[in-house]
Predict the 3D structure of the following.
Amino acid sequence: MNKGEFIKAMADKASLTVKEAGVAYDAFVGAVTDALKQGDKVQLVGFGTFEVRAKAAREGINPQTKEKVKIAASKAPVLKFGKAYKDLFN
């Protein structure tokens, strides 16, 4: 499912137009992004938690040259699904 198909599915489930569902999708993504940029977690009970995790600096290997490369520390957004949501698939 791509973004367009997802927005169409949202529109059908919520009895919205595709345009309204697109606006709602953009608002959701924007709100989550803004919260994560401020260092907050976004907890959606029954679904999961969006948060930013720090990745430590590490050493990697270039597969072509087998040369060791330093990989800088970074931050990455993650989504940890809640137990109730995971249980829907088992």
